[in-house]
Amino acid sequence: MTNPQDESWSMIEETVLRLFADATAEHGHRHVRLSEHLAELGWSQIEAEYPIDAWQLLFRARARTLANTDCLDRVMIAELGAAVDDSATAVILPLISPKGRSDTVATDCSGIAFSGIVVGDPHGRLAVAVEQPDGVVGIGTVNSHQLRFESADTFDRSSKWTRVSGVLDCAPPDGTAQWNRALAAGRRALGTELVALSEAMLELAIAHTGTRMQFGSTISSFQAPRHVLAGAFAEVEGARALLAESWQYGGELSALVAKAAAGRTHRVVADVAMQLCGAIGLTIEHDLHRYVGRGVQIDALLGSHQQLEAEIAGRLLDTDHSDSSLPAVVCCG
Question: Is domain 178-317 classified as CATH 1.20.140.10?
Fold first, then answer.
């Protein structure tokens, strides 16, 4: 982990936050691909020296600046490794069918139909995971011009998602292990972003209670608001601790638990912040709605907290007897 006394890391944090803020100011809600910008910072060397902290920083910066970037694709493709070629720029995330199974299913020798969500606009070559017999997940790549796609409705209007579908000509090689690692890495990363969004909402609530007057005193002096703020803070710290363990030691289950906790924490803190900020917190003039909407949107990626909690319960109680080898990882609608 990073040495808190390391002055060079503080400079890196400041530079990355400024990079994300500038990208948001320049591109607005458009999806930004950061490869060239990060290369200018010597990001490969930073990742080599601070492998865990570098990824965490990217997703904290996303949350703090509400930037739309390709960070999720980057972290997942890094884990897919040799399962995809070097030209892959994004990952197609499997959708949920009405029966709760993945829509990405292997068919006959005529081809393998798939569908899913791309975060941002599809371009270049995209990695796709397809379900095959005997519990195998095949990993292949497809050109964006071979896809059918349409914009997806999003709860957070500043987020861009695209529904895509297509057909692979042949079954791709077994990439089950790589897919599971990519899924775990993505969940840790999004959990980090959800906790940072929760922190931002908590800060807004604390600032509001420190200035809002009731009966001649700020409402932060009253016991009830202080209790709910303390509870929200405890939720954030608990989720942060789970994420720290998952980043440090890895593992699929730890990532699943950490993201579930982060998603639940975002919901709890959002409820507290909206309660304490009152009517002003529900208006577009206040910043709170931006962090609420963004968190609700990304919680759906790689399993919402409700989905993941159900999966954890299924594993603990051995109630999940599904033969699906490719879990659905985007919840839409």
Answer: yes
